[in-house]
Design goal:
By secondary structure, the chain is α/β, with parallel strands linked by helices. It has helices spanning 15-23, 50-69, 82-87, 95-102, 131-134, 137-153, 179-194, 205-213, 225-236, 271-283, and strands at residues 3-7, 33-37, 74-77, 109-113, 118-121, 160-164, 198-203, 219-222, 241-245, 251-254. The chain has a ten-stranded mixed sheet with strand order 2-1-3-10-9-4-5-8-6-7, with helices on both faces. Helix 7 links the parallel strand 6 and strand 7. The chain is globular and about 55 Å long.
């Protein structure tokens, strides 16, 4: 029976309660075992501190070790505070980069998927001012391939993937920026040569997500974090799942944070955690 690891996240947040609710929901597939990793006693609900951050970090390290050294099939990660983790020695921008490093992924990417939208990110946890410098054809090609692979694993065929422009109006033929001409269009051409999917664009960023939400595309490639996640969280917040692409074993996570302000109040919605566990099982 495949074992799915579930990290508790920061025990001062809503991770423990949404995990408990998910496991008791009756909505998880049969034929899997679930192992929760983390120390509930290390945190006081709603009051994060160094001890709760250290506990969250230890759970991540243990999950990575088990993925490397045992038959554990996948990991679902509970919500953490990146700021708190980094204050106790976490050397990564986020959990995506941590698991890519720990599992020696040569290429990796971040994708979020929900009932309405699936969005792959060409750049992830980067300052907005750095995005034009960091955005390369190689990055776009990599996330395009990884996104197509994810969609195929979900059973989709004849894939249609829209690629966003970076600038307003997708640059309007160089009027508002040249990245669409010099970086994004060459990447789209290279992706179409792979035959993995039909890639189109660069599309006007403020309009393409409407078309995708109406089912005209299977996924959208966004050029930076908020470009893709604002529309996704607007439409799919309660059921969206964060997926780390390119790992040897699946890693998923709910799309929300620790929500310290409501921890322990019995109002946290477990739907995203349920979706994250279900997707991990499906990918396995």
């Amino acid at each position: 029976m495949p074992e799915i690891l579930i990290t508790l996240g920061d025990p001062a947040g809503i991770g423990p309660e949404v995990i408990d609710a998910a496991l008791a929901s009756g909505k998880l597939p049969e034929g899997f075992s679930f192992r929760v990793i983390g120390d509930r006693a290390a945190g006081v609900l709603g009051r994060p501190d160094r001890k709760s951050a250290e506990s969250a970090l230890e759970a991540l390290k243990e999950a990575a070790r088990l993925l490397r050294e045992t038959d554990a099939a996948a990991v679902v990660t509970g919500p953490v505070s990146k700021e708190a983790l980094q204050s106790v020695g976490f050397a990564f921008p986020g959990q995506t980069e941590f698991f890519a490093h720990e599992l020696s992924a040569t290429e990796h990417g971040m994708l979020l998927t929900g009932p309405t939208l699936t969005v792959g990110l060409a750049t992830i946890h980067e300052p907005l001012a750095e995005v034009p410098r960091l955005l390369t054809a190689e990055r776009i090609i990599s996330i395009g391939k990884l996104t197509a692979d994810f969609l195929r694993k979900k059973g989709l065929v004849n894939l249609r993937i829209a690629v966003c422009g970076l600038n307003p109006h997708a640059g309007e033929n160089g009027t508002f920026g040249l990245e669409e001409i010099t970086v994004i269009s060459p990447a789209i051409a290279a992706l179409n040569e792979t035959g993995l999917a039909h890639f189109t664009g660069p599309h006007v960023p403020d309009a393409i997500f409407r078309d995708a939400a109406q089912g005209k595309y299977d996924a959208v490639l966004a050029m930076y974090h908020d470009q893709g996640l604002i529309p996704l969280k607007l439409l799919d917040f309660d059921e969206a799942v964060n997926v780390t692409l390119g790992l040897p074993k699946p890693r998923t996570s709910p799309d929300h944070g620790t929500a310290f302000s409501i921890a322990g109040k019995g109002v946290a919605n477990p739907a995203s955690m349920i979706a994250a566990i279900r997707l991990a099982c499906a990918l396995v």
